[in-house]
Amino acid sequence: MTSNSFRLHDTATAPAASVELLKGVQKTWGFVPNLHRVLAESPAALEAYDTLWGIAEKTSFSPVERNVAYLSIIYENECVYCMAGHTNLSRMAKVSDQTIAAVREGRPIADPKLEALRRFAALVTRNRGAVTQDDVDAFKAAGYGNQAILDLLVLAATKLISNYTNHLAQTPLDAFMKGAEWKAPGKLKAA
To answer: Is 190 exposed, middle or buried (0-12, 13-18, 19+ CB in 10 A)?
Structure first.
């Protein structure tokens, strides 16, 4: 049980429609992350997240770019669970420690193209898609196009499900996140 009374399901307690999805996650990851255990309460939510995660892998972004975008979105959404998890996933994707640290601290990345991606992902997330033409032009000047803009929305939608779930459920960190804990800047406030 999470501190917000969400159950951490497994294949014995999950609704029937979530069981096969949890088995697939176990097979892919070697364990079932607590996020998926929470999402299992709603087979539709678990399937939506799992499906979007797979689609995100098909975007035009390289693994490094995808992880920088994810970290940037997570930073804006202040999700401590996802920041810890994606810090380690980013390391596995060969994102440099300096780049990861910059995004976790909300500061610019040294690489100009990755910085343009970090900044644009942050603006899209923070402003719920309402960015200026200057913002779009700056992103495109860094070498990205309309496909990347739309692909970024796939990543943002994926993280909306996970970040918001973790806020609502107060999902506990998984063991593999040890050493990657993060304190959110604290800009988000409940209404």
So the answer is: exposed
Taking the model in full, what pTM does it have?
A: 0.97
HEC-encoded secondary structure of 138-165: HHHHCCCCHHHHHHHHHHHHHHHHHHHH
pLDDT tens-digit series, residues 149-186 = 999 999 999 999 999 999 999 999 999 999 999 999 99
Which structural domain, as residue segments, surrounds residue 129? 63-177
List all residues 6 or more positions away from 26 whose beta carbon is below 8 Å from its beta carbon: 32
Distance separating alpha carbons of residues 49 and 159, to the nearest angstrom = 9
Listed in sequence order, the residues at least 6 apart from 94 whose beta carbon sits closer than 8 Å to its beta carbon are: 63, 64
Integer-rounded Cα Rg, in Å, for the chain is: 17
CATH classification of the domain holding 130: 1.20.1290.10
Residue 41 lies in a domain: no
Question: What token pair was written down for 153?
Answer: 């929305």
